[in-house]
Amino acid sequence: MKLDDVQRIAHLSRLELNQAEAEAVLPQLQAIFSLVEEMQAVDTKGLEPLAHPILFIRDLAQPLRVDRVSESDQRAENMLSAPAQQDGYFLVPRVIE
Amino acid sequence: MSWHNTPIALMAKALAAKEVSSTELTGYFLDRIEAGKRWNAYLDVNAHLSLEQAKAADALIASGKGGKLTGIPVAHKDVFVTRGWKSTAASKMLDGYLSPFDATVVTNLGIPSETNPSGAGMVCLGKTNMDEFAMGSSNENSAYGPVLNPWNAQYVSGGSSGGSAAAVAAGLAPIATGTDTGGSIRQPAAFCSLTGIKPTYGRVSRYGMIAYASSLDQAGPMGKTAEDCAMLLSAMSSHDPRDSTSLADSGEDYGRYLNQPWKEGNTNPGKPLEGLRIGLPKEFFADGLAQDVANSVNAAAKALQDLGATLIEVSLPKTKLSIPVYYVLAPAEASSNLSRFDGVRYGHRANEYRDLGDMYQKSRTEGFGAEVRRRILIGAYVLSHGYYDAYYLQAQKIRRIIAADFQAAFNQCDVILGPVAPDVAWRLGEKSKDPVQMYLEDIYTLSTNLAGLPAMSVPCGFSPNNLPIGLQLIGNYFSEARLLQVAHQYQQASDWHLRQASEVA
């Protein structure tokens, strides 16, 4: 991993790192990835990835429910923690000039 | 009456016999919380709301409609969203956040109502401190300061459920909820001398549990005894249509085996665990395990042997690899889960920004702490083009091997026994400079989350400087009631779980 990679993944993550911060975090990430490299020695040929532990013991069907309105109007409560709002809408910077 | 030393099983009897009211109990613990602020165990307390719930619980008891847990106070880890109490996951990102709904765990334990007829009737005491978004092993990653260990204020409480652990250990709650993604119930329980259990993945609903790594996150109880944990888990666990990974066969009485011998029909009172085969994985006792921890864990194994169990050596060959596998998969899931925090509908928004993109970026950078940012970066890297196969998929394939290794071990034994952590609690600040050193501390707990198995922590001794040591018991899928049985039998024959921190009045 290089400094360029750090800036690239920071951008993908929508995080801001200035040069000094990127340089500080690089050796930490490199140390973590030197640990992660130990995985490469394991022979996993023919193995299926396990995304979810229960899939190891049984098939999980996608649970479905009847398409019915179950929630009441909670607009006021949903707006309680809005950082900015106007007329009952979430307010964001202008995106279309 | 010193209610803070009383297990909830006895508290329930006192409530039923009208020896004490829920209002009195709740007031008692609220006073202790006020006097015990130095531990930094709580992030939000609202005496008015708690006492209102206590009043409702007392009315239920008076009208004969109370259940086993009605009126008993409980503290919730701040990862569970709650109406009324702020829900922050100990992050600046969610500072002051007011949830429009309760997590299913909170509903299941809460005061029954028309929309929640099966609520257990417990009283919420408040929200406990934790590592930010449950990422950490020492509670030093909280945006609101570290939790101090009630056994010695110079030491960490463990993490990420460190606030819940300290709250119970300091007598600021009789029992608490926690969550465990890589050891976050078991390790703080071990560091603070509590009993805690992480059930099989899917037993407890994740609805309203602020997500860290969804295929690993699982909630459970942290209390004084295995019996208390069985009572709380029975009420926490349910099938929840709002969580797609909630298992249909979840609700059960996890305390049903507590006072029974392991083998049905065994009438030898001195050997209740006859027939139980306990496996000791040799990798859990290898280099890196502190001698005092090894001594206490071996003594506990011997005590179980005295109760009739048989000890055998087993092997979990990929134990060491569980660290890199976990620190690829958990950050990958975290980077995806935490992408929802954009400063638009809730959460922190930066004061100044050029445009929408800049608003996202500045809000996220300001809102997340260093460890959370680090894990998001790792996750983005392992999921990015060109690295996905080598890191993310490879980790998921090794995850399958780890799960299979456990099944091979369970062919030889019923329960696996080992330490919870390689060492006792460390000094505040001792490991916070080096993330890798902190990650290595999780070696014995990560693999059960990767496999989705139930596991628990049981107090089994103290180091020479009087810091608690935890015994880990791991069971096969859905064997929580059996694990709790073994722990309960051990607690009938030992008194480690009854000891109180001397700093706690």
Descriptive report:
The complex is a heterodimer of chains A (97) and B (505). Chain A has 97 residues and is mainly alpha-helical. Chain A contains three helices and two strands; from the N terminus they run H-H-H-E-E. Chain A has a domain at 1-42: Histone, subunit A. The longest helix of chain A is centred in the N-terminal third of the chain and has 18 residues, at 19-36. The radius of gyration of chain A is 23 Å and the shape is flat. Chain B has a domain at 3-236: Amidase signature (AS) domain (Amidase signature (AS) enzymes, Alpha-Beta Complex). Chain B has an eight-stranded mixed β-sheet with strand order 6-8-7-12-13-11-9-10. In chain B, strands 1-3-2 form a three-stranded mixed β-sheet. Chain B has a two-stranded antiparallel sheet with strand order 4-5. In chain B, helix 2 (22-35) runs antiparallel to helix 3, helix 7 runs antiparallel to helix 15 and helix 9 (322-337) packs across helix 11. Chain B has helices spanning 8-16, 22-35, 47-62, 104-109, 162-169, 186-192, 226-236, 291-306, 322-337, 356-367, 370-383, 388-410, 435-440, 446-451, 480-492, and strands at 42-44, 73-77, 123-128, 148-149, 152-156, 176-180, 195-198, 218-223, 277-281, 310-314, 415-419, 455-462, 468-475. In chain B, helix 4 links the parallel strand 2 and strand 3. Chain B contains 15 helices and 13 strands. Classes of the chains: A mainly alpha (97), B alpha+beta (505).
Q: What is the CA-based Rg of chain B, rounded?
A: 22 Å
List low-confidence stretches of chain B. none
Q: Give the largest interface pair and sizes.
A: A-B, 51 and 74 residues
In helices, the fraction of residues of chain B equals 25-40%
Strand arrangement in the largest pleated sheet of chain A:
1-2
Q: Find the CATH topology of the domain at 1-42 in chain A.
A: Histone, subunit A
Helix content of chain A: 25-40%
Q: Kindly report the oligomeric state of this protein.
A: heterodimer
| Total count of strands of chain B | 13
Q: Any idea what the radius of gyration of chain A is?
A: 23 Å
